[in-house]
Specification:
- This protein is mainly alpha-helical.
- The protein has 7 helices and no strands.
- The protein has one domain.
- The longest helix is centred in the last third of the chain and has 38 residues.
- The radius of gyration is 18 Å and the shape is globular.
- About 35% of the residues are buried.
Length: about 200
């Protein structure tokens, strides 16, 4: 891969991992196994039957958990400790054949991108779950899966287009993230008060 495609692959895989890590691993691994692409050497283990089997099983679990309000928040909370490091590793591995310096820099940037997309997903999901529409969670979850897979595919086959789109997404994330986190904080605060049995703000004592 040339440097442009490698950059798009590493950053794209990292960003998409913050949304759905297992979909990213499956997409990359299956495409390499089918011969549609050739992954960098450090990412080729993704095409192994063992990795694909585990990623497939975890994706199936996430597919169900991510569509149940409340359960999706717990799943996202647990994956705060999985998606971000995995995004950093995928980005670093993409540059493993370039140089150690590039790999370290890519890992740092990849982890930051994965954190940003993960927090955006969690904040968006909190806002969506406040909606009375029961199908909102399902719809957003499916769109997130599609976005993760599409990001990887576009990064591989149209790297320049992806990098331009990623710059726009990062700028939008920086603008939206504080608002989404405030919504998430209100939701989690309400859940915490409910668990403790305390009245919500504004309720009679």
């Amino acid at each position: 891969m040339d440097l442009l495609t490698t950059s798009a692959l590493g950053l794209g895989a990292a960003w998409a991992s913050g949304i759905n890590l297992y979909a990213v691993v499956l997409t990359l691994g299956l495409m390499d196994a089918a011969g549609w692409i050739t992954l960098p050497p450090d990412l080729q283990p993704l095409a192994s039957p063992l990795v694909l089997s585990i990623a497939g099983a975890l994706y199936a679990i996430e597919f169900l958990a991510d569509k149940v309000p409340g359960v999706d928040h717990v799943w996202d909370a647990v994956h705060s400790f999985i998606r971000v490091p995995a995004g950093a590793v995928l980005a670093a591995a993409s540059f493993g054949q370039v140089s150690p310096e590039w790999a370290i820099a890519a890992g740092l940037l990849g982890g930051t991108l994965a954190l940003g997309s993960h927090l955006s997903k969690a904040g968006t999901r909190a806002a969506v779950n406040l909606s009375p529409e029961p199908f909102s969670t399902w719809t957003v979850s499916v769109l997130e899966d599609i976005a993760a897979v599409a990001a990887v595919i576009v990064a591989l086959f149209h790297p320049l287009v992806f990098l331009v789109a990623l710059a726009f997404i990062v700028a939008l994330t920086l603008w939206l993230l504080p608002k989404l986190l405030r919504v998430a904080a209100r939701l989690f605060g309400g859940l915490l008060r409910w668990v403790r049995g305390a009245p919500a703000r504004g309720d009679p004592p």
